[in-house]
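Action item from last week, closing it out:
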Amino acid sequence: MLVFPQLTTGAAAVYPVFRKYVTRTVVNALGDGNTVMFADPDAGMREWELRAAGLTLEEWTAIETLFQAVSGRLTTFTFLDPAGNLLLRSEEFGEPVWDISPLIQLTAGIGDPLGTTRATRVVNASSSIGAVAQTLAVPGTFRYALSVWAKTTGASIVTLSATTAGGSATQVFELTSLWRRVFLEISLGLNTESVAFGAVLEAGASVDLFGMQVEAQRGASDYQMTGGTGGVYGQARFTEDELTVTARGTDVFDGVVRITCRQ
């Protein structure tokens, strides 16, 4: 798959990263002097400016290779927002974007670590393990960070998991009655085009979950709630038809990369 490359360190980008969301309002001027305004949801545009300073030759070559493969602005590629949560509906585990194992029971409206009632109680009523997971169209070669707040009303544990064809990464976490944000660093290193991220519960387990997050980097950052739009943009384009780079040394390159997506 054509995807904007990750840095060799496993970081999503060199900061600062500038992100902008552009909307359009249609204004209709009436004959009596009044105006009627309507939002144009199909004209929404997301833009990123990546100030890629201090890149190695390998890192800058990867960006140039993608640029050539998509012919500049001509065709699209997948871009993983370096400042976003890649998941959809990060708190709404009952939504269709989530894959729920049979006999997993979900109860929304549970008190969460932020003082509201947006957490979900997840009970595995089956006699085998069950999961709450979401599959993303992202490369298995990238490094990721999966995190979620979790606690239990009993003595249950939770396992964070990332699975793709040919491999997986998991880690078991002991839970108490207090909220704890657990985190899994993921480095599958497999040339695949989708990864399933989620929480696995043992048979009979009861766990409260809140705010699951996946990021295209090695560590978890502050939680970002998502709705119908996550941080995976499959129709991204370069904003310009040329890339400008400054070589500060034999293995030190600076450049500014601008990316846009109508989504």
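Closing note: The chain is about 5% helix and 50% strand.
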